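SAMPLE LOG
Freezer: B-3
Tube label: C17
Construct: single chain, 240 aa
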Amino acid sequence: MTLTWLNFKPLNSIILLHGAIGSSDQLKPLSDALSAAGKNVYTFNFSGHGKMSFKFKGFGIEVFAEELHDFVISKGLNKPDVFGYSMGGFVALYLASQNQSLLGKIITLGTKFAWNPEISAKEAAMLNAEKIEEKIPKFADALKQRHSEENWKQLLSKTAEMMHALGKNNILTEDKLKEIQNDVLIGLADKDNMVSLEETTSVYKTLPNASMYMLPNSKHPIEQINTGILSKIILDFIAI
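STRUCTURE (predicted):
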């Protein structure tokens, strides 16, 4: 008897998730490194990012988690591992807290877990489009190219609103973290000036099945990480 496998992807699939005001193209060096090691790598853009349209049902972690869920189902992936950079890691862990069987192992890097009104106000203040155009024109041009001339300012505004919402109600609570049964590897760049070691360690200790790593000689921006070291860390973890 001949068995025909339809809509089935092998267990060595991994999804790479970008960060806030980012897009999947920033993950290409990591994607290439993991693909060269034999992994089936998938990337996509959350709504409002990378020229994707905004959705009427909203914008934020819950919506992005639903989009990750729908992506896994639409591709027929069998418990794919997930690497989430910054906000992408928050999304992956939130989805894992809602759905215990959808994802495989989860690796994060530079994910900000500590949110309160003061932290949110500080982070959101850095997303003022007019100030960015005035003081960091090269960054403004990069955002326009990544998200389109029409969308980039709206993306910054909606991301700031998302941060304020997290400051009022951090949906990834300690109780939610304790519900996550996936094997998780929590990561932080050693020169990250946005995410603290304290908040990263706290989440690592709260998760039931977690390990932690420090990425050497790297900063928070995804373009300033050591891709070679990161890809080896990911491959070693998912091979366990």
